[in-house]
Specification:
Length: about 200
Amino acid sequence: MGYPVMLHIANQHVVVIGGGRVAERKIKGLLEAEAKITVVAPSATGGIQQLAAAGALVWRRKTFSPDDIKEAWMVIAATNNREVNEAVAAAAEPYQLINIADDPERSNFHVPAVVRRDRLTIAVSTGGASPTVAQQIRRQLAEQYDEDCGRYIEFLYECRQFILRNVSDERIRKKLFKAIAQESFRKKGNWEEEFHRLLEMTL
Ligand SMILES: C[C@@]1(CC(=O)O)C2=NC(=C\c3[nH]c(c(CCC(=O)O)c3CC(=O)O)Cc3[nH]c(c(CC(=O)O)c3CCC(=O)O)/C=C3\N/C(=C\2)[C@@H](CCC(=O)O)[C@]3(C)CC(=O)O)/[C@H]1CCC(=O)O
Ligand SMILES: NC(=O)c1ccc[n+]([C@@H]2O[C@H](COP(=O)([O-])OP(=O)(O)OC[C@H]3O[C@@H](n4cnc5c(N)ncnc54)[C@H](O)[C@@H]3O)[C@@H](O)[C@H]2O)c1
C-alpha cells in the first residue's frame, strides 16, 4: 500500500529519460510543481521540443548513460525500451526517487492521476491496478470539484492567514476556521462580506 505525500519539488532537479508521450505527460505535471527538468532522449515529442525551445526545460539529445542521473533528486524512466528502463533503475542510488514507467516493482513511487484547483490537489491511485480507472475517477472528480471550488479554497487560504496573524485567542481561531469551512457558509457565495460579518460578531 502506497503512502501518499505532497512533495515540495520546486527547483529540485528531475531527470526524465525518454521523450515520448508518457514522458511529456509526466513533465507537464512536474512543471506545474516548478521542478527543474532535464530530458535525456535521442528524440522528443513536439511538445517537449517546444518546452526546450522556450527554456522551460533542458533537453539533452542523446541516449541514456548512468552519469545522466548522478545529480538527480528524482528520476523518471519512460523510454520505449525495457532494457534501457532497467538500466536506469540499476544506475539509481537507493536515496533517489525513481519511477520506471513500465516497471512499478522497481520504482519507489508512482504517479497518481491529479485534479488541481489552485491550492486544492486531489490525487487518485489504484495502486497500479488500472491507470485507466484512475483516469476515469479523476474525470468524475474534476466535474464535481469545479473552478469555483478552487476560488473558495483560495479564499479559505487568505482567511486562514488573516486569522493566524490577527486572532490570538485559540478558541476563537478554531471557531472561525470551522465556520468558514461549513457548506452553509460556502453556499452563501459572498464570502468576503460574510467573513467580515463573522469577524465583527465574534471579536
Ligand atoms: C494515472 C497516470 C498518471 C500519469 O502517468 O501521469 C498513470 N498512468 C496513466 C495513464 C495510462 N497508463 C497506461 C495507459 C494505457 C492503458 C492501460 O494500460 O491501462 C494509460 C491511459 C492513457 O495513456 O490514456 C499504461 C500503463 N501504466 C503503467 C503501466 C506499467 C504497469 O502497470 O506495469 C502501463 C502499461 C504499459 C505497457 O503497456 O507496457 C504504470 C503506471 N501508470 C501510473 C500512472 C502508475 C499507477 C497509477 C495508479 O496507481 O493507478 C504506474 C504504476 C507507474 C507510473 O507511471 O507512475 C496516467 C493517467 C493520467 C490522467 O489522465 O489523469
Ligand atoms: N506509466 C505510464 O503511465 C505508461 C503509460 C503508457 C505506456 N507506458 C510505458 O512507457 C513507455 C514509453 O511510452 P511512450 O508512449 O512515451 O513511448 P514513445 O515511443 O512515444 O517514446 C519513447 C521515447 O524513448 C526514447 N528513447 C528510446 N531509447 C532511449 C535511450 N536509450 N535513451 C534515452 N531515451 C530513449 C525515444 O527517443 C522516445 O523519446 C513504454 O515502454 C510503455 O510501456 C507507461
